[in-house]
Amino acid sequence: MSQCRKRCRRQLTKVARYFYRFVTGTLTQDSIEDDFELSTVCHRPESMDKLQEQTKFTKKELQVLYRGFKNECPSGVVNEENFKTIYSQFFPQGDSSMYAHFLFEAFDTDKNGSVSFEDFVFGLSIILRGTINDRLNWAFNLYDLNKDGCITKEEMLDIMKSIYDMMGKCTYPNMQDEAPREHVENFFQKMDRNKDGVVTIEEFIESCQKDENIMQSMQLFDNVI
């Protein structure tokens, strides 16, 4: 595996763990358990039991997540600007605003301009506890910017540029300006099976399942919580 790919995997693991810890307001799994025993959540959705049925989190995990969510978002929802501010803390060396915009759009499933605790938990459950197919479907939805059921080169180029901007020059000191476009061309060469210029969900899932590196990346989130 190339050094660049190794750095990306380490960064992805770090972000996943820090994102969870930031939202819960905790540092380790042990501290989550200990803290829960000492205190209770003052505010929680009336539908906590329903959320447990609809996600792959336990009730205890949902309560801890909700407490952290309310600490960061006292109103119970987060708008895009606040979401960008939160996300930027994970990437101080780059500009994460555009990628955070795309990520916010993926979490804001009802497209009302805000992410509620329910929106957040549903997405997090898929990312951290979903099947490989669940995660790939979620990733496809993230890349399909206009939600028309296929990924174009323009959409993937916007995504790749936002990722390179987010990682910053510290991560890719020798990166050429054409690197994002080259990445997109490699992506389409691998995934656009019928060469029609777009990648469908079927092509995306089939190609990802045959790629060992992608499958390993999907599994990075298995032990985050």
From TrEMBL:
<keyword id="KW-0677">Repeat</keyword>
<dbReference type="GO" id="GO:0005267">
    <property type="term" value="F:potassium channel activity"/>
</dbReference>
<dbReference type="GO" id="GO:0008076">
    <property type="term" value="C:voltage-gated potassium channel complex"/>
</dbReference>
<dbReference type="Pfam" id="PF13833">
    <property type="entry name" value="EF-hand_8"/>
</dbReference>
<dbReference type="InterPro" id="IPR018247">
    <property type="entry name" value="EF_Hand_1_Ca_BS"/>
</dbReference>
<keyword id="KW-0106">Calcium</keyword>
<dbReference type="InterPro" id="IPR011992">
    <property type="entry name" value="EF-hand-dom_pair"/>
</dbReference>
<feature type="domain" description="EF-hand">
    <location>
        <begin position="95"/>
        <end position="130"/>
    </location>
</feature>
<dbReference type="GO" id="GO:0015459">
    <property type="term" value="F:potassium channel regulator activity"/>
</dbReference>
<dbReference type="InterPro" id="IPR002048">
    <property type="entry name" value="EF_hand_dom"/>
</dbReference>
<keyword id="KW-0479">Metal-binding</keyword>
<feature type="domain" description="EF-hand">
    <location>
        <begin position="131"/>
        <end position="166"/>
    </location>
</feature>
<protein>
    <recommendedName>
        <fullName>EF-hand domain-containing protein</fullName>
    </recommendedName>
</protein>
<dbReference type="GO" id="GO:1901379">
    <property type="term" value="P:regulation of potassium ion transmembrane transport"/>
</dbReference>
<dbReference type="Pfam" id="PF13499">
    <property type="entry name" value="EF-hand_7"/>
</dbReference>
<feature type="domain" description="EF-hand">
    <location>
        <begin position="179"/>
        <end position="214"/>
    </location>
</feature>
<dbReference type="InterPro" id="IPR028846">
    <property type="entry name" value="Recoverin"/>
</dbReference>
<dbReference type="GO" id="GO:0005509">
    <property type="term" value="F:calcium ion binding"/>
</dbReference>
